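Recap quiz, item 2
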Amino acid sequence: MTKVCIIGAGPSGLSALRAFSTARDQGIRIPDITCFEKQNNWGGQWNFTWRTSLDENGEPVHSSMYRHLWSNGPKECLEFSDYSFEEHFGKSIPSFPPRSVLRNYIVGRAEMSNVKELIKFNHSVRLVEEDKEGFMVTVEDIHKKRVIKEYFDYVIVATGHFSVPNVPEFEGIETFTGRVMHAHDFRSADEFIGKDVLVVGASYSAEDIGLQCKKYGAKTVSFSFRTAPMDFIWPNGVDERPLLTSVNKNSVTFRDGSHKNFDAIILCTGYLHSFPFLPEDLRLVTNNRLFSPGLYKGVVWNDNTHLFYIGMQDQWYTFTMFDAEAWYTRDVILEKIKLPVKDERTVDMKKWDERENKLEDAYEMIDYQADYIRALLEGSDYPSFNLELTQKEFKAWKKEKEKSIVGYRDKSYCSPVTNKQSPIHHTKWWEAMDDTIETYLKG
Ligand code: FAD
Ligand code: NA7
């Protein structure tokens, strides 16, 4: 029997499991599947942990999430088309849920899929090697410290790419007298109450972590950008400065010659794609972008079509895109989709690569990723949903952020699955300090 190995039981791995279990439920014979997950639970990034650096088994901590994280995009743009939020929670809920609510939703669908028995938790994949038509996979059972080798016909890599921090060097930073950390290790804004915080970076982590520090009581927050400022209308006590040029004890100097004293520096400088278990000829090498080099349709390794990656792109869309990728991957493995020859695949990849290189703004990026999902879902039996609506909603959300960075989460969007407008949350995000699932779902 054909054997499939899925590495990782985060949202992408769970999408792959869901795709196969859906086929199984339709009476289609599916391969023998094993999913290896190094954590003791499913959910990937959504498994918040207080730990930093190494976990209880001495493995690198995977999750970069922090205590008071709320969804930074409308949940309607990530809604599973085969499992709506309304179906899961029994009612329509507001558009920007906190972390625990989204985790509950992801896990809810996974539980319905009857796939838990296919997952080996506390198993870390150490090595994947090409072997005959398939792969020899070396896995460590972390608790028993036992190393197992198993042959698989197909491998799906779903290990995420927001866990290994990109940590640049800045002149004199070793003399800084306060705390220096990367966003990966940020767990709670509470430790920065009353402090002057420098946040380096100008993307999602910077925006959200900096704003959160202010919300929970930091005295001031300064953002330092390399390429361009975020230019939002920030609350009092928040400013943006060009890149830092040097650090001297607690004083930081910036490119415009300004300087300021800080208590903490948080490096929100992004993450590195890292696949230490893959040899060079199977390893995706990329930065955080929309087109993944070497991957046909963003999922099939062009040099060996028995190897797939899910969730490796920069993400406007998340769960919906992982589903589209998973359904496509499944249909290639089930031979429902016949791949074109390598030259044709390469031409197609070039087209997407070139299109990305010409994108001028966020609005074009949204359309690009929506078209990518559309291309994956052509001919797929993934339940249809209103993808055009999500494009409009992403664009409206971008505009709302420009209007109010502290208020955009107070808006509501329409579900592309149920076509219902979501309710407005009972408390404005800027005033909502209690983000427990119980409080969120009240009202
Ligand atoms: P992950 O969630 O990273 O899961 C990968 C899994 O692979 C993990 O369980 C890991 O333990 C496992 N694994 C890794 N290596 C191995 C190995 N060698 N062997 C076995 N198992 C392995 N998305 C949104 O939609 N909305 C948000 O608001 C949002 N906020 C975010 C905030 C932060 C701080 C971060 C970092 C990400 C955020 N994201 C958000 C994006 C998030 O990455 C995706 O939602 C999603 O978690 C990606 O799923 P994934 O399965 O691809 O990767
Ligand atoms: P991103 O979106 O990859 O952004 C990384 C940011 O870090 C970006 O602004 C970069 O600047 C900046 N960066 C990278 N290297 C440097 C150096 N050397 N100096 C200064 N600034 C640097 O990562 P995020 O963590 O924000 O977001 C990733 C995910 O986590 C996302 O899905 C969120 O939802 C959570 P640039 O603008 O390129 O000049």
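The chain has a mean pLDDT of 97.
The CA atoms of residues 56 and 393 lie 41 Å apart.
End of item.
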